[in-house]
Design brief:
Blueprint: E1 5-8, E2 12-17, H1 21-26, E3 33-36, H2 44-51, E4 55-59, H3 61-72, E5 78-81, E6 83-85, H4 88-100, E7 103-104, E8 107-109, E9 115-122, E10 125-131, H5 149-154, E11 157-161, H6 169-181, E12 185-189, H7 193-198, H8 200-207, E13 212-216, H9 217-227, H10 235-243, E14 255-260, E15 263-269, E16 277-279, H11 295-308, H12 313-327
Parallel strand pairs: 1-5, 1-11, 2-9, 3-10, 5-7, 6-8, 11-12, 12-13, 13-14
Antiparallel strand pairs: 2-4, 9-10, 14-15, 15-16
């Protein structure tokens, strides 16, 4: 069995609540942000479950994207790996993956707890507070295990979330450098502003092997500020500068993609740095938007799914917009059923 797309990330179960303004204040959270839980945030998970009406949704940035790609591709096209515990949370993740046709080769650690993400919704904003738990105990050796090694070898495309760089840079470097050597396509998503702020060294190491970088406007600004770029608000200039950074396999010019939510998406390729492209987003009305959690992951799923399917860069961005738009009309990072046509 081989899969076209191999995805790696932190598997998480989202614990989602609405009207969370008081929670933002209590835990000093920003309305539209993603952070790793500190000690002061530890009680939020029990508080959500005990004192709020919660919705459980399969999460983890790369897993959301993998399910999105699986949603639009033929069966047995996408496989995902990450570390989970042998608990009920992991079983919920497996059920959600099955619905979209995503196969997983989890590293299952006995007696450990699967990671969780508190999702605090306020209007159209979402604040994510993640406790990685066993997700940060992923072992690089899992990639060379008899079960997983043939899947890595057989894949032509790879996708990894930036969150993985908080604990598994060596693993990402192995995957990305091998992909680069074999002229396969490696895609990295920045995932959150704090990755660009506090893990820029690790991000730059992996960028050397990255063919396609995906981020949003906040992540672009965070990277530009950390790198000392002249204008941290100029997305086209930031994309140009990142596209021009050193690359181990220069025969595949790097592509940089910055989304801006409901606003246009900016794309710059290293071989045509002075020809940035702007793709408008089909805007939804306020009453059509149910939940923005996972919209960026859905865009990435539509995009990478289209690339795997052999579509052009233009077609892939449009597919990303379609799947992102469909996702925000669902609760949490989920996709509509019956299936909609994306490609």
């Amino acid at each position: 069995m081989t899969y076209s797309l191999f995805v790696m990330g932190n598997p998480l179960l989202d614990i989602q609540v609405r009207n969370g303004e008081k929670l933002l204040e209590k835990y000093s959270l920003k309305a539209d942000d993603a952070i790793l839980a500190e000690e002061k945030h530890a009680p939020i998970y029990e508080e959500l479950i005990k004192e709020h009406q919660v919705t459980y949704v399969a999460g983890g940035a790369a897993q959301n994207t993998a399910r999105g790609a699986a949603y639009i591709l033929p069966p047995k096209s996408v496989v995902y790996t990450g570390a989970v515990g042998d608990d009920a949370f992991a079983e919920q993740l497996k059920e959600a993956n099955k619905r979209e046709g995503l196969d997983e080769v989890y590293l299952v650690k006995k007696g450990e707890k699967t990671g969780a993400c508190a999702v605090v919704l306020t209007g159209h904003n979402r604040s994510l507070v993640t406790t990685l738990r066993v997700a940060e105990k992923f072992e690089k050796s899992h990639l060379s295990s008899p079960q997983v090694a043939p899947l890595v070898e057989g894949a032509k495309f790879f996708y990894v979330e930036g969150y993985f760089l908080t604990h598994g840079t060596d693993t990402v470097l192995e995957l990305s450098s091998n992909a680069s050597t074999a002229s396969k396509t490696f895609v990295l998503n920045v995932s959150a502003p704090f990755i660009a702020q506090f893990f820029k060294v690790q991000l730059d190491q992996v960028l050397n092997y990255t063919d396609i970088l995906i981020g949003n406007e906040s992540e672009a600004e965070a990277y530009a500020t950390a790198a000392g770029f002249p204008d941290p608000k100029d997305l086209k200039d930031i994309a140009r500068r990142i596209a021009a950074l050193p690359k181990a396999n220069p025969s595949k010019p790097r592509i940089v993609i910055f989304t801006q939510g409901a606003d246009s998406t900016i794309v710059v390729t290293a071989d045509k740095p002075d020809e940035p492209k702007t793709y408008p987003v089909h805007k939804l009305t306020d009453d059509q938007i149910v939940d923005t959690n996972g919209a960026g992951d859905a865009f990435a799923g539509g995009f990478i799914g289209a690339i795997v399917a052999g579509k052009s860069l233009d077609e892939a961005v449009v597919a990303g917009h379609k799947l992102g738009g469909a996702c925000v009309q669902q609760v949490g990072p989920q996709y509509p059923w019956p299936k909609i046509a994306v490609l």
